[in-house]
Amino acid sequence: MHRAVSEAVRLLTAGDIVALPTETVYGLAADALNADAVAKVFEAKERPSFDPLIVHVPSKQALHDVAEVPESIKKPVIQLIERFWPGPLTIVLPKKPCVPDIVTSGMPTVAVRMSSHPIFKRISQSLGRPIAAPSANRFGSISPTSASAVKAELDGRIPLIIDGGACLHGLESTIIKIEPAEPKPLIIILRPGPIVPDDLKQYGRIQRTDKRIIDQPAEAPGQIASHYAPRTPLRLLQSPRDFIPEHGKRYALLSYRGEPRDGYVDLHDWEQVMVLSPGNGKLPEAAVRFFYVLRELDKLGVDEIIAEPLHEHGMGIAMMDRLRRAAARTTFSR
Ligand code: AMP
Ligand code: MG
Fold this sequence. Notes:
CATH class of the largest domain: Alpha Beta
Strand order of the largest sheet: 1-2-6-3-5-4-7-8-9
CATH superfamily of the largest domain: DHBP synthase
CATH architecture of the largest domain: Alpha-Beta Complex
Distance between the termini: 47 Å
Number of strands: 13
Oligomer: single chain
Order of helices and strands: HEEHEHHEHEHEHEEHEEEEHEH
Bound molecules: adenosine monophosphate, magnesium ion
Helix content: 25-40%
Largest sheet: 9 strands, mixed
Radius of gyration: 20 Å
Number of domains: 2
């Protein structure tokens, strides 16, 4: 792994791009302060320029190299990074002038986090510069949680993929912004993820934005309705009664725990049932397997993937957010 790490550092220093493991999903990394390098990320991903990137810093201190921390929210910001960094929490703050416009889509703010993945950490500390790293997939498609998934998405477009095994969390970081308020600061969750509202509530009043995604554009640019989508149409059910099969169509079921008494497994003669948490309903297990299972279902060539709803607590919030976005492509294309 030594050689791979130094090769990644060499490529990044030379302004090239590299796919790296993080604790959330695999990222496509570039030197965040080099606009030409960042342009290669957009090109490889076919990502539209209005969708800004997250900047990963090599240390907590390095936050101040890329972002301003306004006095009015200094206390919660410091508390949150002390508690959750390195880890899957991204904070949106006013940007420093050194961050190129291409990274932030021309916005005055930048989204910053610090990864806890040992390989990512080593590369980012050796590089000693902030790294811009969105998920290593083509724009709008399923996020990769293994090196082979990155290969399936971007093979031939990038010079190096570092294999760090499966990602610990399996879902993208939680993105927040903080507004000063009395008696407690307001923590606005722009994208739900592995750090859940219960983890954050002692630091401020929580505001969720995820349920509004389908009807109106979210406040986070890039958090557009259709995202994380398999090529196969996906439908998210609210209850078993919602499913009326069409004659001659083939369906596969995305089930939370594969338990018949939940009412979905025996609803139909499914082409295949794939279970998120075979360990009988554990949200972190489901999260780790989430994008892998979506990818496998997409390979079946069925007419439609039917998804059971998950309970919206803990990481179930983030998975329901991703399922709604995956389903949105279907709704819009009809
Ligand atoms: P990812 O594709 O995982 O790198 O996540 C990038 C997402 O972070 C974007 O799609 C935005 O939703 C969000 N984001 C990045 N920068 C900002 C910003 N300055 N303000 C608000 N959201 C941001
Ligand atoms: Mg992404």
